[in-house]
């Protein structure tokens, strides 16, 4: 038993010794490797730093299409529309579309304006300040960074293909001089050029839409903008309705009088003439009968 225990202790010591000798060797190997090639140890940190900087720069260059929808209740839609136009022009934007129409006795207006994207919040605050109350207020942000990046990569590839096709077209013209080969390459070149123009147009559209935010605005007149004595009582509307009723009644009376004078009176005159002749004839016959001598 003691012998087995002694053998176990000796084996344990040998293992610990071997481990102690192996660790310095490994350390020396690592030191030697680090002294021989220090750059690879620093490279990951530099690459990570560069990648972090690129990510931050990418966030700063994100392309966002911002669109706002507002429905504002205003005292006077026409005056507010002019105030909106002045405000948008002052911010360096423009009015893309505007229309106005009469709803009963009030004017309503609908507008689409474009303002610099970085001034959208200021423009919305100014528009809300023009309203008696806000019925709708929505802001939508559409991130088109990925689409723009994809379009840029496609454009780069297509432009490289175009250059190669131009070189190939030159080579075909110089070497083969076959009209069929030249036309085949030219058709491919034309197709690539059309695709390039389409991509450039889409990229230009995205750039414009991200540079300028869009505001869809509807101006609704407030018939109750003036204060009232009792909530729910609308004396002005009642007065207007009474006035309209009076005007309608007078119009009906005048229309009836015109019909009497123009249509009914002439008809009555035409009917009265033969009746008057008949009465006159009857009276004449009676008068003759009384004057005839009795036999």
Q: How widely separated are the two ends?
A: 193 Å
Number of helices in the DSSP assignment: 7
Determine the strand fraction and express it as a percent band. 15-25%
CATH-assigned fold name of the domain at 65-139 and 217-221: Alpha-Beta Plaits
Radius of gyration: 48 Å
Element string (H = helix, E = strand)? HHEHEEHEHHEH
**Biggest β-sheet strands, sense, barrel:** 5 strands, mixed
* Name given to the CATH architecture of the domain at 65-139 and 217-221: 2-Layer Sandwich
The geometry reads as elongated
CATH class group of the domain at 65-139 and 217-221: Alpha Beta
Uncertain residue ranges: 1-60, 224-230
* Class by alpha and beta content: alpha+beta
Mean pLDDT: 76
User: How many extended strands?
Assistant: 5
Please describe what this structure looks like:
The longest helix is centred in the C-terminal third of the chain and has 57 residues, at 235-291. A five-stranded mixed beta sheet has the order 2-3-5-1-4. Helix content is 68%, strand content 18%. A hairpin with a 2-residue loop joins strand 2 and strand 3. Helix 5 packs antiparallel against helix 6 (179-211). Among the domains are: 65-139 and 217-221, Alpha-Beta Plaits, CATH 3.30.70; 145-210. The protein has 295 residues and is an alpha+beta fold.
């Amino acid at each position: 038993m003691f012998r087995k225990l002694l053998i176990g202790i000796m084996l344990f010591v040998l293992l610990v010794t071997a481990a102690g000798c192996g660790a310095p060797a490994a350390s020396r190997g690592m030191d030697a490797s680090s002294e021989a090639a220090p750059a690879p140890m620093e490279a990951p940190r530099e690459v990570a730093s560069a990648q972090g900087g690129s990510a931050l720069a990418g966030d700063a260059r994100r392309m966002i299409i911002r669109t706002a929808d507002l429905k504002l209740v205003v005292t006077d839609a026409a005056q507010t529309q002019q105030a909106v136009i002045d405000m948008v022009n002052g911010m360096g934007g423009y009015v893309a579309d505007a229309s106005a129409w009469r709803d009963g006795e009030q004017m309503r207006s609908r507008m689409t304006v474009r303002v610099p994207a970085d001034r959208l919040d200021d423009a919305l605050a100014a528009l809300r300040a023009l309203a008696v109350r806000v019925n709708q207020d929505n802001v939508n942000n559409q991130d088109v960074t990925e689409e723009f990046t994809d379009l840029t990569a496609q454009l780069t590839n297509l432009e490289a293909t175009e250059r190669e096709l131009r070189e190939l077209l030159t080579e075909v013209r110089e070497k083969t001089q076959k009209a069929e080969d030249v036309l085949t390459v030219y058709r491919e070149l034309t197709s690539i050029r059309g695709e390039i123009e389409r991509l450039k147009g889409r990229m230009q559209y995205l750039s414009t839409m991200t540079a300028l935010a869009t505001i869809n605005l509807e101006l609704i007149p407030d018939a109750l903008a003036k204060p009232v004595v009792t909530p729910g009582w609308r004396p002005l509307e009642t007065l207007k309705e009474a006035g309209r009723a009076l005007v309608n009644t007078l119009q009906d009376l005048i229309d009836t009088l015109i019909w009497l004078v123009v249509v009914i009176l002439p008809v009555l005159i035409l009917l009265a003439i033969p009746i008057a002749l008949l009465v006159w004839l009857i009276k004449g016959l009676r008068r003759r009968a009384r004057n005839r001598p009795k036999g």
